[in-house]
Amino acid sequence: MQANTFKVRVESIRDEAHGIRSFRIVRVDGQPFESYEPGAHIDVTAPSGVTRQYSLCSDPAFSEFQMFAVKREPESRGGSRSLHDDVGVGCELLVGQPRNLFRLDARARAHVLIGAGIGITPLLSMAYRLAARGEPFVLHYFARSEAHAAFLPVLAQAPFASHVRLHFGIGNGDLAATLRECLAGVSDGAHVYTCGPARFMGEVVRVGEATPGVAQVHLERFGADPAAVAAMDSGAAQGEFDVKIASSGQVVRVGKEQSIVEALAAIGIEIDTSCGEGVCGTCMVDVAEGEPEHRDHCLSKAERVSNKVICCCVSRSRSPMLILDV
Fold it and tell me: Count of domains in the chain?
């Protein structure tokens, strides 16, 4: 589990769209929340005891409250279902400090936000910040229908209305063409930010990287891509390797069916974890030496190439030893 958790009280609940509910929270101790950068997410422990990650979608300029939204998933293992069924106004929840793997890039000359369904949540906090700074941006929001689109009343008002483009009922066969239209004529050096279903984001990445003027495509995941997991599982057997602690010189063997987190715990070194799927980034640590085998779903391409960080809950090692700064 992640350290630095604290109790919050649910101040209000709102049904934002079909199956999507927002929760406005305040700290039980009456203190303001710490500031966070747009795109951040928090761990939320539901009454069922299951902890999941949810994007903060309120204006990051306000510290009196925070807001996150949850889509009720039919195959929920107790996270979204419990938050929808077991939480009412006045209930207390345990949450973690904001973490951010999905930041606005200061180098961008323009920002293009592209979300689908519940994927609007991190983009909404970005839109608040960009609007406040007067930076050029457009927000493309895809949903099955108007009834499935969250936060429409907010998006229809200032300061967002002139920046928002809505796309309802776009089928898979028409998605690529629609995305090309969305990105046609983007400013040179524009950055694209996307969140939504894995297949949707994959198409945004494919189209975005092929679009002249787009400098980089950023994406946020909250679940491991089943296809990627299956491909990894069907690969070579997980070999054993050693992990050395740079500060102490301790060495521990990581077994074939053991994670780095588990191996380190066996020698008394606790690494904060949350999702256990390489999605949330809680267990990221610095790599001093060695070549990681990245099996996560949260590091950027640049971070993977650099081999300077590793997600300890799922990733392994290509070299006989990894030296970690923990």
Answer: 3
